[in-house]
Amino acid sequence: MTSTELTGQDAPRYVRLSIELIAEITDEQALKTAALAQVENDEYLDDEERTQSVEAIEVDPSGSLAHFIDPVALLGDVPGVELASATWESAQTEFDPEGEGWDEYTVDESASAE
């Protein structure tokens, strides 16, 4: 019995995936340079989108990181799945690895060393 049979649906089903990543920018200039190159070489951006992207990169380094996110690559090799829609954003955030709630997804280094 498939999950489609369990729900009684014959039509394709949609699943919303929520992924949260915290990235540390260790070299803002290197990121900015790479993002500007990415925007310059993006064949799918029209001139207006390209101008807006360059402005966003100049204003905020977190905007630079968004140009390297590729949701198609995340699902591209998953059999039986087609990307229907994708949105994402990047924004500066506070990060306290010692704070409550931040450690729930920390990789246990001792467990992976075995």
Structural features, described:
This protein has helices at residues 3-7, 28-41, 47-59, 61-65, 71-75, 109-112. It is an all-alpha fold. It has a domain at 25-73. It is flat, with a radius of gyration of 19 Å. Residues 91-114 are annotated as: Disordered. Residues 95-107 have a biased composition (Acidic residues).
For the structure shown, list the relevant keywords.
6 helices, 114 residues, flat, mainly alpha
Task: Find the structural class using helix and strand composition.
Answer: mainly alpha
Mean pLDDT: 80
- Characterize the overall form: flat
Q: What is the tally of beta strands?
A: 0
Count of runs of 4 or more consecutive helical residues: 6
Terminal Cα separation, in Å? Answer: 38 Å
Order of helices and strands: HHHHHH
